[in-house]
Amino acid sequence: MQLFLSPHSDDAVLSCGGLIPHLVQQNETVTLLTVMGGNPPSPLPDTAPVRELHTRWRGGANPSLTRREEDRAAAHILGAAADHLAVPDCIYRSHLYRGALYPATAAIFGEVHWADYARYDAGAQVQGWLSLRDTAVDRIFVPLAVGHHVDHQIVRQIGLDLALGRRQFATPGYRPVVWFYADYPYCESGTAVQEALTVTQAQYTVAAASAAPKLLTEHRIHLNPDDYAAKCDAIAAYHSQISTFWESAEQMRKQVKQFMQATGNGQLAERYWSIGD
C-alpha cells in the first residue's frame, strides 16, 4: 500500500493528485489518510478564523462532515481509498484555561503551540491506524510543511518520527519508507519550498544525532495528461475549498497545469523528497 498522510481533507490531492492515479494505474493500492479529520467541538471557539472559514465553507456547524464527503469523492476519482482520523483542525483546538490555541490567522501559520495536544495525539492515532492494517504499507507520503501551517508541521513531524524509527509496531523491524511532498499551493511562493526543505533536513539531522546524516533526495515524477486531468477533477470535488485559492474551477485547472509544467521544465510533473534514497 502507498499511504498519503494529509493534514486536511484536500492537502494530499492538491499536492499529489497527479502521482496518485499514476500509482493506481501501476496496480498500487493507495489510501489517503486525513489526520486532522475530526469533528469540531461544541460550542465552537469564537474566533475570527472559525467565523471566516465556516462562512466560506458553507458547511453548517460541522463542515468536517462535508469535507470528509468531498475527500471520499476525490479519492474515488483518483482510484484511491480515503480514511480520516479524529484529530480536529487547529482552528478548533483549545486549552482548558487558555482558550483557543490558534485564535488568529497569524497563529495558524506560526509555531505549534506548546499546549497543543495534537503534537502527541496525531502521531499516536497514525501509529494506531498503521498497526491495525493487514496490508503492509510500503511508502508513506507526508507534507514538507511548505507555508508553515501548524497542522502541516505536526504531520511532517510524524513523518520524521516514522523515518527515524521512533514509533514501534507489531511487525518487528518495520520502518516504512517516507517521502515528503511540497504542499500545494503554498509551494508556488518564491523560496518557500527551499525554506521547508532546510527546516526538514535540519530537524532530521538533529534527531538522527549522526555525524553523517542521510540527506533529502529529490524525485521529480513526470506525469501524463490523464494524471493531470484526474488531479484537477479530484480537486474540483472539494467544492467548499475552491474559493480559498481560486476564483473558479477553470482558473484552478489552468494554474495547476502551469505549476506542474514549471515543475517539469515544460512537462507535467510533481516533486517529492526522500531521506537517503
Number of helices: 11
CATH fold field value: Rossmann fold
- Tell me the count of domains: 1
Helix/sheet category:
alpha/beta
Q: How helical, in percent, are the residues? A: 40-55%
The first-level CATH class name: Alpha Beta
Q: Order of strands across the biggest sheet?
A: 3-2-1-6-7-9-8
For CATH, the homologous superfamily is named as: LmbE-like
Write down the overall geometry: globular
Short structural description:
The chain has 277 residues and is α/β, with parallel strands linked by helices. Helix content is 43%, strand content 15%.
Question: In terms of topology, how is this protein built?
Answer:
Blueprint: E1 2-6, H1 11-16, H2 19-25, E2 30-34, H3 48-57, H4 63-78, E3 81-84, E4 94-95, E5 99-100, H5 105-108, H6 118-131, E6 139-143, H7 150-163, E7 177-181, H8 192-208, E8 216-222, H9 225-236, H10 242-245, H11 249-263, E9 269-275
Parallel strand pairs: 1-2, 1-6, 2-3, 6-7
Antiparallel strand pairs: 4-5, 7-9, 8-9
Helix pairs in contact: 4-9, 6-7, 9-11
Describe this protein's structure:
The chain has about 280 residues and is an alpha/beta fold. The protein has one domain: LmbE-like (Rossmann fold, 3-Layer(aba) Sandwich). About 45% of the residues lie in helices and about 15% in strands. It contains eleven helices and nine strands. The strands form two sheets. The protein has a seven-stranded mixed sheet with strand order 3-2-1-6-7-9-8, with helices on both faces. The protein is globular, with a radius of gyration of 18 Å. The mean pLDDT is about 95.
